[in-house]
Sequence to fold (226 residues):
Amino acid sequence: DGGITQSPKYLFRKEGQNVTLSCEQNLNHDAMYWYRQDPGQGLRLIYYSQIVNDFQKGDIAEGYSVSREKKESFPLTVTSAQKNPTAFYLCASSPPLGETQYFGPGTRLLVL
Amino acid sequence: GENVEQHPSTLSVQEGDSAVIKCTYSDSASNYFPWYKQELGKGPQLIIDIRSNVGEKKDQRIAVTLNKTAKHFSLHITETQPEDSAVYFCAASYSGGGADGLTFGKGTHLIIQP
Fold:
């Protein structure tokens, strides 16, 4: 069963804590992306990766970090430097040389 | 960079009527235009897309039209049903310019009134 999985579905962060959101895909896609969505808002690009071991900052990268050690995986860390992390986080992937992006189910991050 | 504007932000229609959502883009090099549907608490799902070498594409009750000269494209949903209620996003990109992501509109909340 092919697709993109994100975990956990809900995540709670304490003050000063780093948290990591998981994104895995078995679609054999080269490119992967992280977006942030605030209530009633559109999608804002955080980071993207075109190939393994390479990634680029998007429009709102401050306070976030990523890694791309495997083609299937693109985890996002929300660091303590991100002062307003409460949002819905979406991971996506696209095939080689393609533009169509396929999204995971999302992770909702809440601050305690 | 590309800028995509989407209107209206909220659209309420009677069940069975048609709904039209419009988007404009700024970069004349953009040549790929997908539409996504997002239900509450879920990730966006691709529902239809169009490339700049065609002017219209249909899939059952949904259709997308593209006017390259005016740099706008529209989503048309006919015979609307309650399950069409969702947020719809348009997007634009330049195919072949690298996988650096789509530029999204801010979304339209479509409400189907029974």
About this structure: The two ends of chain B are 41 Å apart (CA to CA). The mean pLDDT of chain B is 93. The first strand of chain B starts at residue 4 and ends at 7.
